[in-house]
Every structure is written in structure tokens, then in C-alpha cells.
Design goal:
alpha/beta; five-stranded antiparallel beta sheet; 285 residues; TIM Barrel; 10 strands
Length: 285
């Protein structure tokens, strides 16, 4: 919670560590951070505390660059269920901070889970002059027909206790509806309508979409990446492949040895490289 003073001190320390770890030929580093707080128990007083903390952080990052020559920037990472759930939610609080060291981290899994249109989202950030500090390349779990029994069974295999798997759908009226976890969405008589697709916050390995009847939101990732770095001027220069859910996958899909995990990570990075070269970027020798 950015209203907690410890968050400011922790992030300041992390920035100092990162500045020291950057290679000699790299002068810019980025850190993603929670999107202010989980949405419950967040009020105007806590919002003011969070804004003040981020403004102080920006001043400290300015001082860090003067001291080290390294520029560190921090990006709020919109996530379903949080105060800043969507990229649009980030605009007002970041405009209030008003410093180019504090911006947005666009996670393409989160973007897809909230059914955000990449063009609309990035256009709004650009128009508001909100820095896109970095993007995390990730894919969400997509169920096209959640009313079908076999689809719900396939989704249930991804419901596990270690991480929240916020689940969202769009109603016939065009409203975003959701639950805080996949188990809640799948419960008998659950709150989500099932006549439209569901998406769940589960970072699916980029190179390995789940078997039918499920799939991933790779197309959202590709569309976002094309906007971020496919034009004449990049909207961000920092990209990360972020899949942390290898051991949360259904048992039959989990890597069973370190070599399998290494191969999976390498396959993801290879796919990301190929997407970038397809957009016209060139590999360094």
C-alpha cells in the first residue's frame, strides 16, 4: 500500500540497489510497483498519503541520478482488483504526482484480463503525457465459452491457492464484471454471467497456450507490442517477459526438473525476440 511509509523506504532502497547493479553501459533502470493499493479500505486520506509518497520518491530518484549518473524510474502496474485496475485509472493519480520518473508499467496480461483495448489504452496514456516506464510481456487465460461444462472443468485446473487469479467478463450492456479469484467465478451460482468470454489473471507461458477449449491472450500482447515499439518512436524502451506461474500450472504442465524450467524460459525469450524482430527491430551482435 503506497499509503504505508515502509513502501516508500523499501522502493527507495530498491532503486539504490538497482542503480548499483546496472551494467556499465546501461544508464536507465525501471521498477514496477503495486497500483497504489488493493481497492478495499482505500479512502481520500490514504490517496493523499500515497500521492505524497510518490512525489517524495520522485525527488529521491532525481537525487539518486545526480549521485550515481543512473536514472531509475518507477511504474505503477495496473491490476484487476486494485485501486488502479486499468491504465485509465492510472491517469488521475499520476497526473497529480506530475513527475516523469513515476509512470505506468503496462502488463499485457492485466491489460487483457480487464478487456482493455491496447490502442485506446496507449492513446489515453500518451494524450495525458503519462510515461510508459516499461511493459511486461505476459498472456492471460481466455475462455471463449465459459457456460460449457468442459470449459469450466478446464478452467478449474488453473484454480490454485498461491496467487489471486482475478477473473473478468464483459456483460451484454458493455460493463466489466469480475471476481477476485477464479474459484469464486466457478462456484455454483457464481456472480459472473457466462454468455460472454472470461479472462483470468494467470500468466500463461508465452510459447505454450493451454490446450482447447482454453487459449491465451497472445493477440493482445502482439497488438500492444506493435504499438509500443513498432512505430517510428518507441513508447517504452524496457520490456520484460514475466511468467512467474510455472509451478502454479496444472500438474501435468509444470516443469518437473530444472532443465525443463530453463528450456521453458528460453522458449519464451526466443518467442519475444522473434516478435520484436518481426516488428523490424534488430538484434545486437
Amino acid at each position: 500500500d503506497w499509503a504505508d511509509p515502509e513502501r516508500l523506504e523499501h522502493t527507495t532502497s530498491l532503486a539504490r540497489v538497482l542503480a548499483g547493479l546496472l551494467p556499465d553501459d546501461v544508464t536507465d533502470g525501471t521498477i514496477s510497483t503495486l497500483p497504489l493499493a488493493w481497492r478495499t479500505a482505500y479512502d481520500d486520506a490514504r490517496a493523499d498519503q500515497a500521492r505524497a509518497a510518490l512525489a517524495t520518491l520522485a525527488e529521491r530518484l532525481d537525487a539518486l541520478q545526480e549521485l550515481t549518473g543512473r536514472s531509475i524510474r518507477v511504474g505503477l502496474e495496473p491490476e484487476p482488483g486494485c485501486v488502479v485496475e486499468t491504465t485509465g485509472d492510472a491517469i488521475a493519480p499520476l497526473t497529480a504526482v506530475g513527475h516523469d520518473r513515476i509512470g505506468v508499467c503496462v502488463d499485457t496480461c492485466h491489460l487483457a484480463t480487464s478487456f482493455e483495448n491496447p490502442d485506446t489504452a496507449l492513446d489515453a496514456l500518451t494524450a495525458a503525457r503519462i510515461p510508459i516506464v516499461k511493459s511486461q510481456l505476459s498472456a492471460a487465460l481466455h475462455a471463449e465459452q465459459p457456460s460449457r461444462l468442459e470449459v469450466r472443468r478446464a478452467l478449474a485446473a488453473f484454480a490454485e491457492p498461491r496467487f489471486l487469479h482475478q477473473t473478468r467478463t464483459i456483460t451484454e450492456a458493455g460493463d466489466l464484471r469480475g471476481t477476485d479469484d477464479l474459484d469464486e467465478a466457478l462456484a455454483e451460482g457464481g456472480p459472473l454471467p457466462d454468455r460472454a468470454p472470461w479472462r483470468a489473471h494467470f500468466h500463461v507461458p508465452l510459447h505454450a497456450a493451454p490446450a482447447a477449449p482454453l487459449t491465451s491472450t497472445m493477440e493482445v500482447l502482439k497488438a500492444t507490442l506493435a504499438r509500443l515499439v513498432g512505430g517510428p518512436h518507441p513508447l517504452t524502451r524496457h520490456l520484460e517477459v514475466e511468467t512467474y506461474t510455472w509451478q502454479a500450472l496444472p500438474p501435468e504442465l509444470r516443469p518437473r526438473a530444472r532443465a525443463q524450467l530453463t528450456d521453458g524460459i528460453a522458449a519464451e525469450l526466443t518467442l519475444a525476440r522473434d516478435l520484436l524482430t518481426d516488428l523490424g527491430l534488430k538484434e545486437l551482435p
